[in-house]
User: Which sequence fits this backbone?
């Protein structure tokens, strides 16, 4: 049986190859984009003296976000909302009210909340994969329209046509699964924002990931690549499927700095976000962040997860659960058990109302199939 890695933060070693002659430098010079008249900050790809481990070093010197009690409570509420929402979604799937595939975010809540709480909602965008309910909830989107989307209802955020895997919101700059396009848009529009692009440890082995990283580094695109390493991809342990299991090192060939983060601690994730986002906002190009986390359920609702033991899952729940961790911090900072129970009660009520709303909402009219197919009319 695979031994769960769930690494702590570690420094990462990088080495910069040197050209020995001006002739050998030629190909690199030709590959660089033309500079504008205005002096721009150098990216790591342009600065041979930049140490790719510098962001990780800064993070390790101060790895936990100094949150106020109000912020701690907000993190707790948001993470608990995701947990209770996903639990209810699993129940609705079992009742046949949610069709197709359904990928639950239970166990990974600290990643979405830690990162998205540091975004500028007016400028920044988010792109993710199929396990997207938690990311939408982290944006503060109404649980009712998300649950309605899961159940294929007209009131859903994508009018019931996206379902669990393809939710979309232009209002909140939540764009689905095309990371490089989102980052290009920010650079083209010069809006000061950046793109937060999530993918999993399984997707990290696909070739287009590295084509994207190469282009992002060449063009200094404002993007943070986030590997949500939940240890098992679609059902294979990372040690069996990946020759390099330290995913934060995989940007080395493209001069992209990496960060290794404990994705089960929302305060560590938020602190890493502060460092990574600052780097990107300063115009220095992309960052690759690996958040080591763990999903309690199968890859999707149809996955029995027989590739790991119940004891392993229970051990993570008891010793590394992200919600229990922030709850402990709150209790140490003066919150009471009664206060936190009341919050849980309110959130359960919110989720019940969302489920009831979804169940009574009508399905889309057949004609809705022909809308939103193209951006314009031709």
Assistant:
């Amino acid at each position: 049986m695979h031994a769960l890695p769930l690494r702590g933060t570690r420094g990462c070693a990088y080495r910069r190859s040197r050209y020995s002659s001006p002739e050998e430098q030629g190909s690199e010079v030709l590959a660089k984009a033309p500079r504008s008249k205005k002096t721009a900050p150098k990216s790591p790809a342009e600065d041979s003296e930049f140490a790719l481990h510098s962001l990780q070093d800064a993070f390790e010197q101060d790895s936990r976000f100094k949150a106020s009690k109000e912020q701690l409570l907000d993190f707790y509420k948001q993470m608990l909302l995701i947990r209770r929402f996903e639990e209810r979604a699993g129940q609705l799937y079992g009742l046949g009210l949610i069709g197709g595939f359904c990928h639950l975010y239970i166990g990974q809540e600290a990643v979405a909340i830690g990162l998205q709480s540091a975004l500028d909602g007016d400028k920044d965008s988010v792109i993710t994969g199929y396990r997207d309910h938690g990311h939408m909830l982290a944006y503060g989107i109404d649980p009712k329209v998300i649950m309605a989307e899961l159940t294929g209802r007209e009131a859903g955020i994508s009018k019931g046509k996206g379902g669990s895997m393809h939710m979309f919101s232009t209002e909140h700059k939540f764009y689905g699964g095309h990371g490089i396009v989102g980052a290009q848009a920010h650079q083209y529009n010069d809006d000061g924002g950046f793109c937060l692009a999530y993918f999993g440890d399984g997707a990290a082995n696909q070739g287009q990931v590295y084509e994207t990283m190469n282009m992002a580094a060449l063009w200094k695109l404002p993007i943070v690549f986030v590997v949500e390493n939940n240890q098992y991809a679609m059902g294979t342990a990372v040690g069996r499927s990946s020759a390099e299991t330290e995913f934060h090192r995989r940007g080395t060939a493209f001069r992209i700095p990496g960060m290794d983060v404990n994705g089960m601690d929302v305060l560590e994730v938020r602190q890493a976000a502060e460092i990574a986002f600052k780097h990107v906002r300063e115009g220095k190009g992309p960052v690759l962040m690996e958040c080591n986390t763990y999903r309690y359920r199968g890859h999707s609702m149809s996955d029995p997860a027989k590739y790991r033991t119940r004891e392993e899952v229970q051990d993570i729940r008891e010793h590394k659960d992200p919600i229990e961790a922030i709850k402990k911090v709150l209790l140490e900072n003066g919150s009471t058990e009664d206060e936190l129970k009341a919050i849980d009660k309110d959130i359960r009520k919110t989720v019940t109302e969302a489920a009831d709303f979804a169940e009574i909402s009508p399905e889309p009219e057949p004609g809705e199939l022909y809308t939103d197919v193209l951006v314009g009319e031709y």
Observations:
- Confidence is low (pLDDT under 50) at residues 8-36.
- The beta strands are 125-127, 195-200, 223-229, 258-262, 287-292.
- The first helix runs from residue 22 to 31.
- The chain has 13 helices and five strands.
